Known about the structure:
The complex is a heterodimer.
Chain A: E1 6-15, E2 18-28, E3 33-37, H1 44-51, E4 59-64, E5 67-68, E6 79-82, H2 94-104, H3 111-120, H4 134-148, E7 152-156, H5 164-180, E8 182-187, H6 190-196, E9 199-202, H7 203-206
Helix pairs in contact in A: 2-3, 2-4, 3-4, 4-5
Chain B: H1 2-13, H2 15-34, H3 39-72, H4 75-79, H5 86-115, H6 122-146, H7 153-180, H8 185-214
Helix pairs in contact in B: 1-5, 2-3, 2-5, 3-5, 3-6, 3-7, 5-6, 5-8, 6-7, 6-8, 7-8
Domain ABC transporter (chain A): 6-207
Keywords (chain A): ATP-binding, Nucleotide-binding, Transport
GO molecular function (chain A): ATP binding; ATP hydrolysis activity
Amino acid sequence: MADPFVEVQNVWKRFGRQWVLRDLSLAVERGEVVALLGPNGVGKTTLLRVIATLIRPQRGTVRLFGKPARALEAERGRIALVANPPAFYRHLSGEENLEQALALAGRPIARAEALEAMARVGLPEGRAVAAYSSGMRKRLALARTLLARPQLLLLDEPETALDAGGREELVRVIGEVAREGAVVLATHDHGFAAEVATRSFAMGAQA
Amino acid sequence: MLALRDLRLEWRGRAGLLSAFSFIAVVLFIMGIAFGPDEANLRRAGPGVLWVALAFAGSMLASRAWALEVENETLDDLLLTPGSREWIYVGKLLFLWLLMIVMGAFLLVLVAAWFYLPLAAWPQLFVTLVLGGTGYTVIAAFYAGLTVRLRARDVLLYLLVFPMILPVVLAAVKATLGIAFGAEFAEIVSWWKLLGVFDVVYLTLCVLLFPGVIEG
């Protein structure tokens, strides 16, 4: 049997004296969309960041694509984390941000590709990200995901600030990634989780 | 790639460069007034003024190199870049180094004009600037990365960096003094060698330690 796409085993993580994750285990298979559900402060974002190898748990192991997360340096480009709100360089335009992000990931793109992805998510060209609304930033994050084609997509409250059109595009992107990989998303919206997720993971019960 | 992107961002914002250049101008003005018009005094003080101004302005720029990621909340995206995280440090170091050399060259001209530093010896001054500037930026870029997530990062940066760069500043000042007063070339070279050793040792240590310190 193939290894799970994501395997979090008995993970403990604390900030200062506060334990945020306690003996948490989760496995995500290829093709799954797992929604992390739970109230504020239960550790959904922390779990996403642990999976993304951005923070190291005090105890426990994380394996991605069948390998220890720490041994994934060259393959980190297979992971995309979209924070809430998504982070971009404010002084650069949307298309410049896309070009920079992809170039740093070792997959340089032409300006036309960036503009095409932006057009797909309904964003205008030539505007600095500083002038974007929250929803436009979310759309730009979708465009970045489309271009990066990650195998593991981690989303932190992706549905917030999106209008109906943006939400539809988000659902499509999640479906596209899940066809070849897996998606783990943190949300408070049970309706959204029911709409896109193949499985929900209630964190209050574990943490 | 990272260094080029940071240069582009800095050029768009210009906040760090403007602050550093303004700081340098103010320090030179105050020091110039404080040491009075006596040429011998100014000549003796010049190398110290040069490296103190460069060190403080360099700390401002080092902080700026990482502040770009904090202001834009893009540090996580940077850490998710494929490849070993040493390269993030090297990218930031290169960005800072380029700014330091440009700023140092500008400062050399100003100090030469006001503190009688012999610009005729510019190749020697430039070698000293490159060796001293490298040692300084290696340390400053490392500690600026180490403190990037902390609220008191600007204060901590000065407290952490200055004890570590003391040997670099001392050797650089000695080499510059030697150049200013026409010392034997061999004596200047001996300070360059010391700076070179610092540069190699600090760079090796910082590259090795960086991936461990940047993770949350």
